[in-house]
């Protein structure tokens, strides 16, 4: 993953620098992340919330499923999943999906915080949808809530409230998982949670308006690295032929989960093989950023890979669905470590990691909490000296 540094340098200095073959080789064939001590030090004993954190970090419970969010009149939804933060004047808003059926409250909710991080209001921004798993934030500050069912849709929602969510059928009907916006190429990347799933991108007719556009699918070989191209999906509606089966030569990914864009790079996770993939968009190549089978010496710290986000320092934070109930950290120099561990919740999963605008608070949820049920969800906030 040293390609991240390489890309930043080459983009800034394009046309001004000539790279030697050895430097190019080092960037192009960097090994997947390996075990190392974390930048924040060892985990401390579990705190009163059952969370192990590095020294200097603290946690708080922001919301619990079925209970009123403190300082508001809103009851928090079931099975909190993907999430994101949005600036809101002097404070911010945290949005969270609800991965349940329409009849059980599927959709998304939001919590508004003041500058001190105290909730001031909470409310629904999407209702009546199914298995809203992950999603993604747009540059125009909407939240794309994705339905994880075979005929799933993308819903564009409005974190500030007061505006009805809008379905975006041009973005395709398939087992949607996550979305990531690329403002440079003016596209939205989309993952698909199937064992033979694909990676897609949506090119809006007009950037900032998702009402119409072109859905494309990634084509590549079967290896874990190489070059890729994009091909149009003939029928984004996916009926009668699923979108992933309409184009020949597509690259199959085993259970697409979270995705994150930064610095001409897309990172996305696949849970079926415990991998983090890296698309180098400046030169249309792909490679592995992490593979639990390639950690040497082991054991691999990250299994059950799921949602992913990034910090201002370029660190990636990857949440586990199962595993040891950890959020792991991958640094720009290809080192992986455990940032936090939630104890006593082995029947749950961690999801929805997102930083507030200042980058000093990390929100995430335990979808089923200590109960192992969708009615036991807990949403947390971790505060501390995050690298910027």
TrEMBL record:
PANTHER family tied to this protein: DUF839 DOMAIN-CONTAINING PROTEIN, SLR8030 PROTEIN
Top-rank lineage group of the source organism: Bacteria
Descriptive protein name: Translocation protein TolB
InterPro entries in the cross-refs: PhoX, TAT_signal
Organism whose genome encodes this protein: Actinomadura craniellae
